[in-house]
Known about the structure:
Elements: E1 3-7, E2 10-12, E3 18-25, E4 28-39, E5 46-52, E6 57-59, E7 67-72, E8 77-82, E9 91-101, E10 104-112, E11 116-120
Parallel strand pairs: 2-11
Antiparallel strand pairs: 1-3, 3-8, 4-5, 4-9, 5-6, 7-8, 9-10, 9-11
Amino acid sequence: QVQLVESGGGLVQPGGSLRLSCAASGSIFSIYAMGWYRQAPGKQRELVAGIFSSGSPNYADNVKGRFTISRDNAKNTVYLQMNSLKPEDTAVYYCNAELSIQREAFRRGFYWGQGIQVTVSS
């Protein structure tokens, strides 16, 4: 089955940087879009950034100018470079992908990673 595995999270001081990675594996035919969501305690899950296969990105207003999303299509991997981190960025970050599998190449589905903790604190 398809799996999305996140890596690169951890603890960082305010103003610091982290880079998250999400690698998709399994019987994948094509990935059409990938994105990052986050959920802080007591808050609902929100979109952080997304990117299409063409490379066109979109960002939430509260991360625009600080975060950069990118893809390596050959590796089925999406990255989130996070700079100038703030305490309010603390959350569990989830990778999401819209993709098709090899047995059903023309049917798209959505998949989620397990989530990875990012903590911004002094």
